[in-house]
Amino acid sequence: MVRKVSGSKADARAVRDQIKREHEDGLRFEGARITFERMCEIWTESRKTVGNANSRTIALDAQRLSHLYPYIGHVKVKDIDAKMVESLMATLRKESGLSGTTLNKIFSLIKRVMEKAAEYDYIPRNPCAKIQAPRKCEPKRNSLTLDDGARLLAVLDEEQRHAYAQMREKEQRQEHRGNTESRSRVLGISNLSSIMAVRIGLATGMRRDKVLGLLWDCVEFGDVCRLHIRRSYAADCDLKEPKTRSSIRTVAVDSTTAEYLSVWKIAQAAHLEQLGPAFAQSPSTPVCCTDVGGLYDPTNFFRWWKAFRKKHGFPTLKFHELRHTQATQLLANGVDVKTVQARLGHANASVTLNWYAHAVPENDVEAAAVVGNLFAGQSAKSDETVSKKGTRIIQLMA
User: Fold this and answer.
1) Any residues with CB less than 8 A from the CB of 347 and at least 6 apart, and which?
2) What is the pLDDT of residues 203-219, one digit of tens each?
3) Region class of 313: left (phi > 0), else alpha (psi between -120 and 50), else beta
4) What pTM, to 2 d.p., does this model score?
5) Domains of the chain, with CATH numbers?
6) What angle separates helix 189-204 from helix 146-177, to the nearest 10 degrees?
7) Most buried of 114, 197, 212, 231 (most Cβ within 10 A)?
8) 232's torsion region: left (phi>0), alpha (psi -120 to 50) or beta?
């Protein structure tokens, strides 16, 4: 291996000694030429080969790393040390105004890239190993109140009636024009599917990808309607099994939502029948589908959801906050945490409590009363003792 050195003989000897040390440590010679940018490319290709992340996640992470290239992209990985990484974090915070959560994500990516460099023996150790990651910002976790939840259901009913009325008008126009055969799509199915997706989200706390991945073979009608959660359909448009075993679960549905599901199944089958036998409803048909009965692109659903919430006075409501609402209201109304944990598909109860349980003001008032009764021993005191306490308090206030 040859390295060019600009400087004195002493400088050249220092480089020679460094090469010897690297060789003795088992480092590969080509590692001396690998830049951070090139190492990011190598890491990205490795992730694609291993297949432990979906294509969208890999692409997003690669994009995030590319924003670092103007700062350290040209730097050899062997020259990146802990101080350089810490300085980079400080620079990004100052120049870009990034949040702690974003900086934490970027640091995690740098650490994983450098860990891969260490695994490939390009560097002796990961310089990020002993650095403290930037602290994440405390996430803002919102949930609907009972009144807001009731209002959301009311506007869903209103939107559904309007959607059915629009579909009837469109069908009448199609019949008037004589377009009763060779239909390519039935406009309005996706709109009704979107409304049903929100109903399911509010009723079960399911994530959006699980709702959109729900097929009719996962819906069990009976004395109690149950949804068997087996698949997810996320932004990468790939129908697959959930990442964790706890996400694969069965949840019960209330009778009202079950009735809406039953009616929707019949209506969906009738609409799809208009497209011909090839589009007929089957167990593999998505519950929330497109105008031709296919899987509903999450991006298209988000566009509908954004317009819907703005129209009906929920401008900042995130779909995931329906999940927050589920946990908050169940816990606030006495449902045990293990049941809520299983319903939401969490691996352990601490996640349920830490991430999805929000303080309910009414419960805080009740808690204050309980504490007051406990310490005052009100339940064990006679009326005479209570009266004396009241007199004493009045005297102290006088």
Assistant:
1) 244, 246
2) 999 999 999 999 999 99
3) left
4) 0.73
5) 34-119 (1.10.150.130), 146-356 (1.10.443.10), 361-397 (no CATH)
6) 160
7) 212
8) beta
